[in-house]
Amino acid sequence: MKKISFILVIVLLAFIAYIETPTASINKNQVLFYSPTNEDQEVSSNTDEIFGAPELEYKLEETKEEDGFIVEVYREYEIYKNRQGDIVKTVATDNTEFIHYVKY
Question: Which residues, in sequence order, are CB contacts of 32 under 8 Å at separation 6+?
Answer without folding.
Answer: 22
